[in-house]
Design a protein that fits this description.
InterPro entries: YdhG-like. By secondary structure, the protein is of the alpha+beta class. It has 3 helices and 5 strands; from the N terminus they run H-H-E-E-E-E-E-H.
């Protein structure tokens, strides 16, 4: 079994269901995405550049769906939050599956892919 699969299997509910749901949307929306296991969490890369990662932050009660270039997306997608005062990353915090607006998330994924494709590197700050 791959480490990324073990990550999902080892999560407690409701986090496991939320993570698997978000994972399926990412993979089904972006067939070119590469799922990697880095820094002990799942990353989703486009052209070898990290675009989004999934995490459960210690002491928090939600799944953090974090966009590496989120600072460039937050004006168009107000659901993105600057949690923990991060310079570049913005994220969606999900306590339940119902917290995710499916259509808006797909638009966000496509826009993030487009932006990342125009960038030389994912981390710019």
């Amino acid at each position: 079994m791959k480490p990324v699969d073990e990550y999902f299997i080892n999560q407690k509910e409701p986090y496991q269901s939320i993570l698997l749901y978000v994972r399926s949307i990412i993979i089904n929306t972006l067939p070119e995405v590469e799922e990697k296991y880095s820094y002990k969490i799942p990353f989703y890369n486009i052209d070898k550049k990290p675009m989004v990662y999934l995490n459960i932050l210690k002491g928090k009660d939600y799944v953090d769906v974090a966009f590496v270039q989120g600072v460039l997306l937050e004006n168009d997608f107000p659901i993105l939050r600057n949690d923990n005062n991060r310079k570049q990353v913005r994220s969606i915090q999900l306590k339940t599956i119902e917290d995710l607006d499916y259509q808006n998330f797909i638009e966000l994924l496509k826009k993030a892919t487009h932006l990342l494709g125009k960038s030389n590197k994912a981390w710019f700050l």
